[in-house]
Amino acid sequence: MNITVNGDELEVRSPGLTSLLRVLRDELDVVGPKAGCEAGGCGACTVLVDGAPRRSCLTAVAAIDGAEVTTVEGLGAADDLSPVQQAFVHYYAAQCGFCTPGMVVAATHYLDSGGSDDRKEIQEALRGHVCRCTGYVKIIEAVAAARGGNFDLTTTAEGGYTTVMTGDAK
After folding, report:
1. Dist CA 69 CA 45 (whole Å)
2. Of 3, 50, 63, 156, which is most buried with the most CB atoms under 10 A?
3. Is 122:144 a contact under the CB 8 Å cutoff?
4. Is residue 50 classed as helix, strand or coil in its secondary structure?
5. How far is residue 111's CA from residue 150's CA, in Å, rounded to a whole number?
6. d(CA 93, CA 137)
7. What domains, with CATH codes, occur in the chain?
8. How is residue 156 annotated by DSSP?
9. Grouped pLDDT means (10 residues each) for the chain, 170 residues
10. DSSP secondary-structure letter at 146?
């Protein structure tokens, strides 16, 4: 079987009924998707399969032979974060970080599909993603800000990030 992961076409050797999550983490060393509940309930393992969000823990790799998979690693690089990744940094939307990859992937899909910065709509779009640290306020603020595009992050000489305000960011 073959799948394209974050732009790289890869051969999968695991048995067909192996979950995509296990293939990504154990065989392909793509560790962004997290093994939370491994029952589809927490969203920590969410990836995009051919552009649609999927729980990788519930997806048999045989079911996606030939598909394109995008994980949080494929959304941006350390020196070129995606707008949602930038917003999560700026708004301190990640606490322990365990749910963050799935949240970022789901939020990216929501915004790329025309989602608004309406807080209730963001809550609905992220329903089924469990965060045990934040209470979701910062996550929702980050997604709304990413939709508005009202800030940028630039890399400092030390390799960290600093925020450059470009609009009405709070």
Report:
1. 12
2. 3
3. yes
4. coil
5. 14
6. 8
7. 2-74 (3.10.20.30), 83-165 (1.10.150.120)
8. -
9. 97 97 98 96 97 98 98 93 91 90 97 94 95 89 86 57 46
10. H
